[in-house]
Structure formats: structure tokens, C-alpha cells
Amino acid sequence: MNNNINNNYQLTLDELASFQSQKSFCKDNENITNNINHAQPNIPQNVTINNNNIMIAEGKLHSFTRFRYSNELRKKYEDHLEKTNHSEKELNVALNKLRNMIYEYGLPDGSEIMMNSYTASLRGKIWKILLGVYRVSASEYLKYVSKRKSKFYDKIKNDGFRTLRTDEKFKQKVTDNMIVRLLNAFVWSKEKEKIVSNVNCNFTYVQGMNVIAAPFLYVLPEMEAFYAFSTFIQYYCPLYVHSSLIGAHAGAKLLDICLEIIDPELYNHLTKNQLTAEIYAFSSILSFSACTPPLQELLCLWDFLFAFGVHLNIIFVISQMIIIREELLNEKNPYHKLRNFPNLNAKLIIAVTISLIPKIPKEIYTKIVKHTHDYKTVEELLK
């Protein structure tokens, strides 16, 4: 698609991504998330956190509850996506409105349902817009799929077999072969290709990619899922899939730093038991919480993550701990509780996350924003 806008060319929000500067997206997300507490104040007002407890107006976490089970919210999103825009400025206004809708309403139930195997679900369409996935090619994907087994094929196949294997709905919809094809194609697509960032290394397969790929395959047709997954990995969290997972290790370091600031009592209790984020939270960080069920709640978390910045991953994990802080403090050995995080509750995690952001010093928050993609920030954290 031609990136030059003229008065005769009208665009819908679905086409916004072609005007989205991928290289500047992380900086844009930093600005968006810094302002998040001023966009829709209703959620933070319903969450109070102190050293002793969490008070949450459970029924008021989102205003969308009253009509979530109707078609009203779905139509609201579909109308917004189909609205015609005449300039890049209008497109960006539409994107910000989409983010605000996600903040205020969430997505309706059933947003992950695809009408057929080649049509994206509503959630899939929105994820592609938020991530800036503007290029897909069936012929290119088929070319990668038709190649021989990559050197990581056996590892991919073993990991694919284990992906969300206890989730029956996922297994009915996403086969092991789909996971293997997508990841094997990813390896071929990035062969000898340099990361488009300030990191001088090649993409390759690392353990955990299968869990990250799974939600994309659940909400998008396989080919579109491949491009959405590839965009997410390459532009949003390249250091998480660095051969030594340095981004995720830096994320664990940041989690420790933030927890000490936000909840010194809980932090001291964990460190007294020789527990750091590297021990109890690394899987959650690396997978963007995809290692914790249920999948439906994860999808809601990722809606928010893609709208306001993947760096919120770290604060999501802290929020999960804050929610069970009393149980952790009452455990002589809290590792038993942290070995398997409690089931995700997206509304609650998002609400707590928003309330925690103002408690984090700006210089630390900036590092959180940058740790997924900025090599210098990661080096400073891990030295």
C-alpha cells in the first residue's frame, strides 16, 4: 500500500498500521502509558493499596460489565474500525480512541471467535492494529512453510506438543502442527536477518516462543498469526528472545527493584527466604504471563498490554503478587505459593497495575519501558 496520503484516498482504522513508524513505537507507547492514569480515572479510584490490604470495588472495575454480554459493545468496536479517515492525523486520533475504548470497556466476550479459518476475529483485528501489523503475504509464508526442517525443528516440535496442553478449547482450535509450522517458518524467515533495533544479533528460536505464539494462533488465522507474532517479537520484545534472554533477566531485576519500592514488607519477606524474581517470576516475565491459565483472562491482559505498552508485563506480575500478598506474608515458605501463580483475573490485575504505576519513580519506570528493546538499559541493569 502506498504510504502517501492524498485527498482522494480514504482509509479505515484497519489500515492505520501502514503509517505507524515501527522504530518509534516504543517511544510512543512510553508517552501513552505515562498518561494512562489521566485518561480514564474510574479504575484507579476503585483500587486502594497499602501495606496491609487491597480494597477493590469488584463490581466497578470496568464500566462495560452492564452490556458485555450483548452485541452492543461489539458493534461499537466494529463501527469504529470501519470508520473512514482522511489523513494520518485522523488515523492516529482513531487509534487513541481505540486505546481508550479498551481501557474503559475491554473487549466483548467472544472477541476471539473466528467465523472461519481464514477470517480474523475481532480481537485478532484489533491486535494487528495495535501492533502495527500492516504486511502479510500468503506466498511468502507458504515459501517458509515449504522449506525443510530447520535446525530447531525437533526442539520446536517438543515444545509445541506441550503448549497449553491442559486447555481443551485451545487444543480444539489450535493444533500442534499449526504451532510447529508457524515457529519453524519464523526461524527460516529470520535466518541471517539482523534484528531491526540496536542489538547486533540474529533472531533464532528460544524456549518459550511456543507459549507466546499460542494466543496469536487462537485469535488469528495461521498466516496472519505468523506476521503478528513476528512483529511482536521483532519490534516489541527483541531482547526477550536474545539467545541469553537478557531482556527477561533485566525484567526480573526491575521486578525486584519495583517490589522493594511498592511493598517493602513483602519484598523483605521474600528476600529473607532467598526468593528473587529470577526464581519465582522468570517464566511469567518471559511468557508475558501466558504460562498462567486461564487463556481467556490472558487474552484480556494482552488487549491492555498491546494498547498501552508491552513493558507493563513487569507490573502485571507485581500486581499478581500484590493480590495474594497476605497469603504470601503468612507463608513461612512463600515459594510454595509462588511456584504456580493463581489463575489470572484480568480485570483485577489491570486495576491494580494502574494503581501501582504512580508509585514507581520516573527513572525506574523509564527503564521498565526500555528493557524489552534497549540494549544499553539492559546492560546497565545486569552489570
Write the layout of secondary structure elements.
Layout: E1 11-12, H1 25-34, H2 36-39, H3 42-45, E2 47-49, E3 54-56, H4 72-82, E4 84-85, H5 88-105, H6 122-131, H7 138-145, H8 153-162, H9 168-173, H10 176-189, H11 209-219, H12 222-236, H13 246-262, H14 264-272, H15 277-280, H16 282-286, H17 295-308, H18 312-323, H19 325-329, H20 335-338, H21 346-356, H22 362-370, H23 375-382
Antiparallel strand pairs: 1-4, 2-3
Structure description:
The chain has 383 residues and is mainly α. The protein has 3 domains: 12-51 and 59-131, no CATH class; 138-235, Helicase, Ruva Protein, domain 3 (Orthogonal Bundle); 246-382, Ypt/Rab-GAP domain of gyp1p, domain 3 (Cyclin A, domain 1), CATH 1.10.472.80. 57% of the residues lie in helices and 3% in strands. It has helices at 25-34, 36-39, 42-45, 72-82, 88-105, 122-131, 138-145, 153-162, 168-173, 176-189, 209-219, 222-236, 246-262, 264-272, 277-280, 282-286, 295-308, 312-323, 325-329, 335-338, 346-356, 362-370, 375-382; strands at 11-12, 47-49, 54-56, 84-85. The strands form 2 sheets. The chain has a two-stranded antiparallel sheet with strand order 1-4. It has a two-stranded antiparallel sheet with strand order 2-3.
